[in-house]
Structure prediction request, 538 residues.
Amino acid sequence: MKKFAMAAIMLAMILSACGNTENSGSPVQTTQALQEQSKAQATDESLGETTPEATDGYNITWEDMEDIHMLYPSMGPVPSGLQAVEDAINEITEAQINTHVNIDIYEIGSYDQQVGLMMSSGENVDLMLTLPSGSAGFSSMQAQGQLMDMTQLLEEYGQPIMGTMGELIKGTMINGRSYGLCGYRNVVSGEYIIMRTDVLEDLGLLDKARNMTSFTEYEEILAQVKASEKWSYLAGIVGSGHGNIMLQQAAFCSEDQFKGISLFDNLGDTYKVICIDPQKSDDAVRMTYSTDEYKKIYERVKKWYDQGYIYKDSATTLESGTDLIKSNVGFSMFCDGEYGIEAIKSADCDMPMTCVKLKDYPITTGSCTKFTWVIPATSKAPEATMAFLNMMYTDNRIANLLAWGIEGVDYKVVNGEACFIDGNTAPAYHTNDFMYGNQFITLPWEGSGENMRQESYEIMQNATYSKYMGFSCDTSAVTGEIAAVSNCLNEYRPQIETGMASETVYDDFLSKLQASGVDKIVDCYQQQLNTWIEGYTN
Prediction:
């Protein structure tokens, strides 16, 4: 296969900036410096439109047309217009990088299982998106040796990506090697409660919802929805589709007042087994499910379940929360999201939604490993895959096709925003804009404002970072324990985190985690974190 030569100077500079255990300065000083370095690296090329000519720097002519297999989840039903979008993408990629892209999409509820089957059978997958948790999570797949080390591929074929992402590229590095790429987007996120605006308006609760500051007030709203003659058929709260109501990313919603919500850094652990408080100085790694904060979350959700507020099938349904709201099953849900979430969720649910922020998260390694593009070890065309990844991160034509479909068929552009074509709010293809490559070159959706991308970009440049940003744990020594713990989580978490489980089941859960070797996983993280911190202080 013919390769083209590209200078490795930029790689050396970026990897040097990312740091390792031989760097000087404290982790806190380093993470504070990330903000200034990211601002210095920001260029107009990171935002807005790109042109076909902008991709000339990494055009590649292979000896033969390469075929790559791409896999990602759909947050709702698999779009019927996928083939047309795939064809439109291939009109670009075949001419420009001599690569044909074959796309498969699975509904989010079955994605984890499908990926597990593909990996266990050795099926060829060249490019896929990992999930925030489960066997299709970044940490799990890397620990099991299912991900290709893409460091050399980035050096030879990924310079445009590296120049675009800057410091965020370190969020998916382990022992100085790159195993994935997070989406280049505003990774400054927060915890939200999402509620149907029409219900709130009808019951005269919109102002109360927008101004609520406690879970007590939220419960009062749930009670009025349940007691109303018109809306009582709605489940007050629906889950995320993974048997999860409240523990979304890195917030312990254990106190009544939203201002009392505590944050944790999961150090990139997609199973949410690991938590550490970035505000404390003891650097103690804890096991999430044995903390007092998690126990309080369980008790709150169980109370809601017993009161009839939670959708009864939350532990088993494969439907996403947005789909359940869209299909007139639910009133509200918890989720994490970024700037502009209200417009995004309103589009996803096909109705106006009211989004109330509970807490902002700092940028952590977990922010980067939440949704990650990876090249599985089964890939048969890694070079062509990296060339296509470049287009995802730098070519707005690819970005908009993956997010919104075909302009003039699935959406139109009005005043710099993508929106539904009149009379067609359910086009053949419509997904979202946060998963694919570079969100900053993707058209914002209607209601976000044509300047939304620039505003979002500026928010990210001024964000706070966890002092552990950039730490990633090599868990290859505890793969057996991780597999056992994963099985335990799959068995117990859906019923615990939807309020179905009794106290006895909760206690059994903790006992089984201990028997599965969870303490060894915690020790693995603690030891490597200590070494990482010592590397900055020595």
User: Anything to note?
Assistant: The first strand starts at residue 66 and ends at 74.
